[in-house]
Design a protein that fits this description.
Blueprint: H1 6-18, E1 40-44, E2 47-50, E3 55-58, H2 73-85, H3 94-106, E4 112-116, H4 119-134, E5 138-142, E6 168-171, H5 176-186, E7 190-196, H6 211-224, E8 227-231, E9 254-257, E10 268-272, H7 277-282, H8 293-308, H9 311-332, E11 337-340, E12 347-350, H10 357-368, E13 371-372, H11 387-407, H12 415-423
Helix pairs in contact: 2-8, 3-8, 5-6, 9-11, 10-11
Amino acid sequence: MTRSTTRDAELRERAAQVIPGGMYGHESTKWLPDEYPQFFSRASGARIWDIDDNEYIDFMCAFGPNLLGYNDATIEAAAERQRRLGDTLTGPSAAMVELAERFVALVSHADWAMFCKNGSDATSMALMVARAHTGRSKIIMARGTYHGSHTWNTPLKAGITPEDRANLIYCDYNDPQSLQDAAAQAGGDLAGIFATAFRHEVFRDQALPDPEYAATARRICDETGALLVVDDVRAGFRIARDCSWSVVSVQPDLSCWGKMIGNGYPISALLGSDKARAAAQKIFVTGSFWFSAVPMAAGCATLDHIRDSDYLERMVRVGTVLRDRLQQQAASHGYTLRQTGPVQMPQILFEEDPDFRRGFCWTAEAVKRGVYLHPFHNMFVCAAHTEDDVRRTLEATDAAFEALRNREPTLGPVEKLAAFAEMR
């Protein structure tokens, strides 16, 4: 089982000279086992190839943007047609209006759409709209939930001042009483409540939204005039063909979308109800590339596919098979997995693994065998994953469990995670 890593090592060395830390952000591998490649060369369907041409069945899906399959022919054809006409122009193309129309038709709470580039852009826009709508300052969000990487929500401390977080009030996710207490603390200055589609932090079991918690958030906003914001950047269209909180029968005033909109093309969105339309017209937000036409054309084709195909049902079917068989396989090797969240967005952790040494070893062994799993971040199933991919994955994970069993007596604490914890 020999893999070449020569080119990856060379690129890491070159990157260290010209990029701070050699890499940054959520796709940096500095917190992952050494077996993980940093650089990739190509992708197709549910497969990726690293810079040394090692092939992987990919269960990270570019951290979410790959919804239908890398290089999906229909999406690429739509993008190419627009690329030949123009992309970043002095003004937007008709695709902007067409994409907004598709979104409003699909998402039941939405009456309008605004487009940007990243999930952090969309959540920051939502924050501004909530404040513009209410004339208030305070925002409630659950402790530990991830809403982006701008100064008001980035999870790490460096470069952040207390003033950046001065108007945030925290509650416990899925705890209605904690949410009510936070609203009481905000008093008459509550502008909005932010909620993730479901609880999906790193290093933790995932949790679907409790209906009572969701209903409490809606009631508080109705009583106070604040806006309810559902952050669907990570989960959008992977839970439902609507806002993810539709599964608990709660409609937000604003919802934030990203990752999957263009099946890999850079675009995100803020959707809103008519209640918030006037406020959305007041704020000033923009970007030189926010109105680029190619991602919007790709987005139109993606939303058409979401509307017309069985992509979601296929993801659920494959994800269910993977979850069930992994649980059986782990037990056959004497391990117990904690698999939480939706099957199409799995989080896989080990019981009795408080410092993640088992998870790090097992996923590293899987990567060496051509299956890209993650030791502490939720993963993603895409519509291009097949049952044959599951079969091949299970062959790799079976061998990875065996390797873990053999290596376990020599495993120690994961030093990289201790360094990461100090930064949080």
